[in-house]
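Please, structure for the following, as tokens.
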Amino acid sequence: MPETKESESTSELRQQAQRAESLRKTIAPEAPIEPRPVRRYRARVFQGYLVAATVVFGLFFFYARNSPYFSFDLPVARWVQHWHTFWLDVLMQGVSALGFTPMAPIFVGLTIVFVYLMGLKWESVMLVFAGVGVGVLDIIVKLAVHRHRPTPELLDVFRELYEYSFPSGHVLLFTVFLGFLLFLIFTLTPRSWKRTAGSALLVVLIALIGSSRVYMGQHWPSDVIGAHLLGSLLLTLTVYVYRKGKTRFFVHQPLAPGKPPAES
């Protein structure tokens, strides 16, 4: 009997090891295993960024509460707006429109439903987490800072908005939600022109959204920078929770990383 129990225990440990290895390979199917010193160095650099981003955002938060705009906001915003052309008007308004109601809720909702119907249940749950997290964080920080938006006396404002300005909700949404989509594309799909095209589109949208908000005179540059910093922290938390939950609760999920090998 003891030998039988020991054999069963060994078999279970072996199966767990196989599942863990399967998960590792599927999460990064094409990525070679870097030497430990390289991984340790990258981890320290990333940890350093998180500390720096937290400190800088804290400074932005403090100064945004106590000043209508930073010293660099007005000259930078006017420089961005001096590139005014018809085609830039169309591009920037089109990009910004994706972050307004009803486009943003429709896009977020359809994306979550699509991912869920593909069988990626944990991924769809984490997309909900990202979307809700953005909304809650945006409201809390805006109410805490109480910063007003640029006025027509200072900038060319395409359309006046009356909600608080810091941080930019558009930038926060794109950084976190599209950033997490970009992470999923790289970890769940094989290398192909479709993956490259989809990733490039997301990167371009994330890069353009901040400029579009300043170009339209609806946010200060510091609103955009603050949103990118805060968004990167929330995105990091989202990926961390995703990985923790994936390895613990969703290793049997079909079509997603962590599908265990067939048991003999």
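Residues 23-30, 254-264 have pLDDT under 50 and may be disordered. The chain is about 70% helix and 0% strand.
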